[in-house]
Write a structure and sequence with these properties.
single chain, alpha+beta, 2 domains
Length: 424
């Protein structure tokens, strides 16, 4: 236990320098701008905006927590991106530079490929096959696994907060209700580099004073007793963008988080084993992009083709969103509930509901079918002003305002289309 606390102390010491990092404050500015931009959609759909301060501070606190967890794992495993061979080690930036170049090129094919799972797997395979670039394959793949493990934890804890209700047009042409999750977390991550500089000697972590089992992912020079690690802080950013159509945002995030966590744990274990077995390194390099792509494709297929939870085309009016302290919230209505009747009158669409409430009835009672199939009766009274609205967003039968479920056009596709138009 003492060994873990010692390593945790190193992580906390390095993380404390976060406030002086200019790159971190740049990420923080991007976070503010992104959340400020999304406020426009919130205002259109809900008639209000989530407090900007709450959104930013929440992402900041959760992101720092995730960074501490990830940094502790990096330190325990002893992950470095540098390769140590024949008494020499590669430059720290070289591995990251190649990964970024590949990631940017892949993003031109599809923006969602701007992920280290794809670029890191390609760079790792290139090294294993040709020896270029000279990088630490197990270290890079393990880091990818840790970043996605952090992401899975953050999605589970914070991915569903401040979800925005939307009307969405699926590929089959059907308009349904859903929720958009759009989160961004600044992550302070402590990484390791080889350190031999006398100027930095007081910060170098060597075999002396550390437990014999550390680091788990040992390189040859460490085994010979001649290697030291220099911890340093790198601010990174993780993002999560998704829609919930077939389930609530909480359940969607829970499901996504579980799959991503399983993927991350398998990748980390493969990366550790690849230190000793080259064949496992090939397996990990292929697993990283392929398994990640399968998770994304399967998740999208579920939401685009599965049975929608928020659908008013049959069986009553579907509740998509409940305003706080509204009659609907006091009647304990929940997203996904279906309104079957109002004051014993069957209501076919949202227009009829609005027309009925325009008479300001003093008492409103509804028959509701819950998401588990049970039917309940709820009631709300206002003898002073009458009930003019229930404070719920209903999925319309014919929406005039909706968003289409299409992937963002790739840059390379736009370029090809441009030259096609020019050639005509």
């Amino acid at each position: 236990m003492y060994d873990i606390l010692r390593i945790a102390g190193i992580v906390l010491r390095e993380t404390s320098s976060l406030v002086t990092s200019q790159f971190f404050w740049l990420i923080f500015l991007l976070l503010v701008l992104m959340y400020k931009k999304s406020s426009n959609i919130e205002n259109v759909m809900m008639g209000k905006k989530f407090p900007l301060v709450e959104k930013v501070s929440g992402s900041l606190v959760v992101g720092i927590m995730g960074g501490l967890i990830g940094s502790l794992l990096v330190m325990i495993l002893g992950i470095t991106l540098q390769n140590y061979t024949n008494g020499e080690y590669t430059a720290l930036a070289s591995g990251i530079l190649y990964i970024w170049i590949i990631a940017i090129l892949l993003a031109m094919v599809n923006p969602r490929y701007l992920c280290f799972s794809y670029a890191g797997g390609i760079v790792a395979l290139s090294n294993l096959i040709s020896g270029f670039p000279n990088i630490n394959v197990p270290g890079i793949l393990a880091l990818i696994g840790i970043l996605h493990l952090i992401e899975s934890v953050l999605i589970r804890l914070d991915g569903h907060t401040y979800s925005v209700p939307l009307f969405l047009k699926r590929k089959d042409g059907k308009i349904v209700g859903g929720y958009m999750m759009n989160k961004m977390w600044p992550i302070p991550l402590v990484l390791l580099a080889f350190g031999f500089s006398l100027a930095a000697a007081r910060n170098i972590i060597g075999p002396q004073g550390m437990p014999q089992w550390w680091p788990i992912m040992k390189q040859g020079a460490w085994l010979n007793g001649g290697l030291g690690y220099l911890p340093f802080l790198v601010p990174v950013v993780l993002g999560y963008g998704d829609v919930a159509i077939t389930k609530t945002p909480e359940n969607r995030c829970r499901e996504t988080s579980t799959r991503l966590a399983l993927y991350s744990i398998i990748l980390i274990l493969l990366s550790i084993a690849s230190v000793w077995y080259t064949i496992v390194a090939y397996m990990a390099a292929i697993f990283a992009p392929v398994a990640h792509e399968l998770i994304i494709v399967y998740g999208k297929k579920e939401e685009e083709e599965g049975e929608p939870l928020f659908d008013s085309s049959k069986g009553g009016l579907t509740v998509l969103y409940i305003k706080k302290n509204s009659p609907a919230s006091l009647m304990k209505l929940e997203p996904g509930d279906k309104i079957l009747s109002v004051n014993n009158n069957q209501i076919e669409n949202e227009v009829q509901l609005a027309e009925f409430l325009s008479s300001r009835p003093a008492v409103v009672w509804m028959e509701i079918r819950k998401t588990d199939g049970s039917v309940k009766s709820v009631e709300y009274q206002d003898y002073g002003r009458g009930v003019v609205g229930i404070g719920a967003l209903i999925v319309p039968t014919n929406a005039s305002l909706y968003f289409e479920l299409n992937e963002t056009s790739a840059t390379i596709k736009k370029i090809i289309e441009y030259f096609k138009r020019k050639s005509k």
